[in-house]
């Protein structure tokens, strides 16, 4: 969700049924993320949830973001 002040145009929003699956990968396919994807692929899917698809245009430059401590 964009923070306040963003000029975002919402083009489309849909609700539906969703599912997720992470496909195990090798270093050659995802050199910087293969270990993360493989760890997620090893987790069991406990429950399928609903899904949303939102298409938007525009955003802010996020220059006001800050690190949480």
Written account of the structure:
- The chain is of the alpha+beta class and 69 residues long.
- It has a domain of 47 residues.
- Helix content is 13%, strand content 25%.
- It is extended, with a radius of gyration of 17 Å.
- The two termini are 21 Å apart.
- The model has no long low-confidence stretch (mean pLDDT 87).
Helix content: 10-25%
Would you tell me the overall average pLDDT?
87
User: What percent of residues are in strands?
Assistant: 15-25%
Structural class: alpha+beta
- Counting DSSP E segments of at least 2 residues, the number of strands comes to 2
Order of helices and strands: EHE
Query: Rough shape?
Result: extended
Strand order of the largest sheet: 1-2
Largest sheet: 2 strands, antiparallel
Notable traits:
69 residues; 1 helix; single chain; two-stranded antiparallel ribbon; alpha+beta
Break the fold down into its secondary structure elements and pairings.
Blueprint: E1 9-17, H1 34-42, E2 50-57
Antiparallel strand pairs: 1-2
């Amino acid at each position: 969700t964009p923070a306040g002040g963003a000029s975002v145009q919402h083009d489309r929003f849909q609700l539906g049924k969703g599912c997720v699956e992470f496909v195990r990968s090798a270093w050659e396919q995802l050199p910087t993320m293969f270990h993360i994807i493989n760890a997620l692929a090893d987790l069991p899917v406990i429950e399928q949830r609903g899904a949303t698809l939102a298409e938007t245009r525009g955003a802010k430059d996020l220059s006001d973001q800050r690190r949480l401590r």
